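**Paired protein data**
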Amino acid sequence: MTNTLFTPYNMNGMELKNRFLMAPMTRSRASQPGDVPNLLMAEYYGQRASAGIIITEATQVSLQGMGYAKTPGIYTKEQIEGWKLVTEEVHKKGSKIFLQLWHVGRVSSSKVNGLQPIGPSSKIAKETSVYIFNGAPNGDATFVPVETPKEMTKEDINQVIDEFRIGAKNAIEAGFDGVEIHGANGYLIDQFLRSNSNQRKDEYGGNKENRVRILTEITEAVAKEVGTEKTGVRLSPFISFKDMGDPEILDTIMLAAEELEKIGVTYIHLCEADWDDAPEIPTDFRIKLRETFSKTIIATGNKTPNQANELLAKNLVDLVGFGRKFLTNPDYPKRVKTNAPMNEISDNHTLFGGGTARGYTDYSFIK
């Protein structure tokens, strides 16, 4: 049988009704103070439970790990209780949901959280900004440049490893089916993976074996806490924005995949660029990854349903993530199946921030 987006899937013991994955998308709707998930967010995710599985927006494991305003956390009791609203609604609507665990590292500013950023090295990310909300009349986000990070000590590294472990534990308490470790897109773990941002001379820097160490140690801690079947990892081998160009990254990512195979995590999620002229992941890389990693492989990156089905039919991936299509079409699988017209983004001003339904939960369903 040829697999398609509508074929059910058993992900390491977890039954998914289809192979549509709602990809993580930062929307900055958490309640203030405290960056607490809320009923509006629960409605948003519940509306999109037509996906076989949802990966939440990136969720910081600590205040230090926060890089943008109004993003949710998973390190306080109030945040855990807020996320319970989300998981209950998604489960009631018949889908599965993983929480994406996030630490931004050097991609932050003291204007966001009052703290100096931290990173593998004291090297600023050039031409990189984050956003705050400073009371602009239209409610828009204001972008501010990132600041020079403090190079992490061994104690800092140990603390971050534990923050991911505790975040995973809290996520399961909040009712999530599992967690995704965010090792992509220029954030903390990705900063350690890359030779240009990681200039350390200790056991966490230098050669690629050392640069993958923090990823494996975080993953081992999380998997030990919640189980390998509830642990996934996101990587972005072909994305280099946020000043992350590294000629060694493909070899490093493949080494990371070997280590993740040894640990036994339930999936690797390839974050793929979604702009029009973005680099395509070569087929030979996908084949090599499939040979290296035996569990679930996820692809995202603004793919059409036909492109997704082609990857599924060739057995190069097992699930395909869709971001903006789910943002504007809560019933995206139904629209694909019936070839129905798609909603488009109604107002770019509503992508990040705002405490109302406008541009968030007011997109229409087909009958």
Notes: The first strand starts at residue 9 and ends at 11. The longest helix spans residues 154-173.
